[in-house]
Amino acid sequence: MVADRIQPAKDLSDVVISTRIRFARNLNDYEFPCRLSVEKKCRVAAIVKAAALGNQNKYSGRFRYISMSELTQEEAVSLVERHLVSPEFISDRQGRGLLLIDNESVSIMINEEDHVRIQVIRPNLDLEGAFDLANIFDDILDEQLNFAFSDKLGYLTQCPTNIGTGMRASLLLHLPALKESGAMGKISASLSKLGFTIRGMYGEGNDPKGSVYQLSNQVTLGISEAEAIDNLRDITMQLIAQERSAREAMAENITILDGLYRSFGILRYAKILTNDECWKLLSDLRFGVEIGIFENIDYDTINRLMIEVQPATLMKNIGKKLPALERERIRAELIRTAIARPKVPASRRLE
After folding, report:
1. What residues have CB less than 8 Å from 151, skipping those under 6 apart?
2. What pLDDT, in 10s, does the model give residues 154-182?
3. Which helix (H) or strand (E) is 283 found in, with range?
4. Three-state helix/strand/coil letters over 83-148
5. Is 76 or 349 the better-scoring residue by pLDDT?
């Protein structure tokens, strides 16, 4: 049975794509970014840059500083596509800077909604690992920057919803079975009552492309970071159980299976692919791997493709601006090369 091939409980990579921990911090001596002139934003950026790059620690030599105003539109959008910055961060790039570590697992946005946004991304479910690393950079910067902190309220932030820990913990989840079953609306409403939000992978107002959802904590005041992480993990484990149960109910459905095989056929042989079409097809491919009908395709490959075939990132990697049709041709070629011919279990081939 297909259900027997679904990932065991100890391996969560079939549902959890990545983990993100983000800290919002502000400097005591400056107004929030929304009140700063471009000149003062540049001053804040220089101070944070010096604190990160001038500190003698094992990480300082691994960071590079990017002045956001010097990027092309494609380069800036690619940062969003790769989850390194928020969409809001590139909306007005004047006076904003980015500190980016060499393997892109850590990014520090300067002058987004707050003076400093420390962000750590780890693959799969790794809340403690991401938090520990974010905490290291928080301590390094706080030593020199003296972040705004209240004994009564905690860290002070521009948006009241971030006051307290200033921490947002998020997980990217692939939930195709729950989406297909129509359960996501009810789940979203229930999570909201519990202090969590679930939405598209790029945050508020973003549609869940490819059945990829971002689950985040909303409560930052009156709760410790450890409690927030534990609560998020508990909710995630419940969602994983629900998703796997829904998959089992669909795994023998001939209509579902036929759709997944058709999606694979398009990915394997198409000569052009639009970005929106590609997201749906790659989600179906991942779903097929999750229920065991496609072998020799790993989650890392699919996760990587979901990023690399997006328009701005594709052009950044090619090194030039491309018309839509050329992007669609290259996108299809990249996918055909990456997935080659997977081994389809003989017991699961459609008769």
Report:
1. none
2. 999 999 999 999 999 999 999 999 999 99
3. helix 275-290
4. CCCCHHHHCCCCCCEEEEECCCCEEEEECCCCCEEEEEEEECCCHHHHHHHHHHHHHHHHHHHCEC
5. 76
297-346 tens-digit pLDDT = 999 999 999 999 999 999 999 999 999 999 999 999 999 999 976 555 55
Cα separation, 66 vs 98, in Å, equals: 5
Residue 280 corresponds to which tokens in the numbers above? 């749906």
pLDDT for the residue 163? 95
- Tell me which DSSP letter residue 345 carries: P
DSSP-derived 3-state class of residue 155: strand
Check residue 127 and give left, alpha or beta (phi > 0: left; psi -120 to 50: alpha): alpha
Q: Say how many residues make up the chain.
A: 351
Structure tokens at 196: 């969590």
Between 350 and 200, the higher pLDDT residue: 200
Q: What is the biggest distance separating any 2 CA atoms in the chain, rounded to whole angstroms? A: 70
Could you tell me the pTM of the whole model? 0.90
* Nearest C-alpha neighbor of 121 from the set 109, 112, 110, 113: 109
Between CA 205 and CA 176 the distance in angstroms is 19
Number of other CB atoms surrounding residue 338 within 10 Å:
15
| Run of H or E residues at 266 | helix 254-269
Q: Which helix (H) or strand (E) holds 51?
A: helix 38-53
Residue 65: other Cβ atoms inside 10 A: 17
